Amino acid sequence: MALAGSADLRCRSGAAHYPFQPVLPAAKAALRETGKLTIVALGSSTTAGSGASAEDRSYPAVLQEELRRRLPNADVRVVNKGVGGQSAYDMLLRMDGDVIEQKPSVVIWQTVVNEAISQMGEDKLAKILRKGIRKVQAASIDMVMMDLQWLPREGRYPRYDDYRAVLKKAADEYGVSVFPRYGMMKDWARSKRFTSEELVGMDGTHMVDAGYRCLAIRIADGIVGALTGAKPELADGSKATN
Predict the structure, then answer these.
(1) Binning pLDDT at 50, 70 and 90, where does residue 6 land?
(2) Architecture of domain 6-227 in CATH?
């Protein structure tokens, strides 16, 4: 499946090592029965697009563009419900209005970075994540949880990996697919296909345009693969086998 531009192939650097193969039965059924695919992007600053040069450069906006291009016969809508600075608990409180009332077939939940930075407590976080997952699953909505981002100076947060593990464990307990953002971003940084300024902004925390675009492309790869079986072209010109 071709990308909009060949330069975007660099986004698939490391795809074989960090595959994203979500299981999306509700989305597959909705697409088959109604021709519609509605996704809610729930999150904090990454979802809101903090650091992007324009609103249409946020990852949800690029994801919608990519999915519409790759699924031309589908009615695709990606609803951005990102609010910068919010915690997982803040998002849990708006799960009904901002997610369930939208009647999506998929929600992408990006969270935990702010908890890792503030060290709110792992047990408390785990309870919040479980409640959110159960609420979404009870509404028969497919969920994807987004792993935390790689940070150039993550050493400032000594328990960062511990909080990543809390998210992964909660997702595993309920069979939720995890988008491997951390590994992907770390691979992009090491691949020398990007400059450091293309992935994370001057503040050392928020992503910027190229990073958001690649995030969207890799999420689109997984979603389209789950819905149609299409395999993306990799950075070396080969086709993905998984």
Answers:
(1) low
(2) 3-Layer(aba) Sandwich (3.40)
With beta carbons less than 8 A apart as the criterion, state whether 112 and 166 touch: yes
Phi, psi torsion values for 105, nearest 5 degrees: -100, -15
65 Cβ contact partners less than 8 Å away, ≥ 6 residues apart: 56, 216
In this prediction, residue 47 has a pLDDT band, given cuts at 50, 70 and 90, of very high
- Model pLDDT, residue 3: 46
Does residue 35 have a pLDDT over 80?
Answer: yes
Nearest to 110 by CA among 78, 71, 154: 78
Torsion sign (Cα): 192, 198, 203, 205: negative
**What pTM was estimated for this model as a whole?**
0.91
List the single range of 20-29, 82-91, 130-139, 150-159 with lowest mean pLDDT: 150-159
User: Can you give the length of the chain in residues?
Assistant: 242
What are φ and ψ of residue 75, in 5° steps? -95, 100
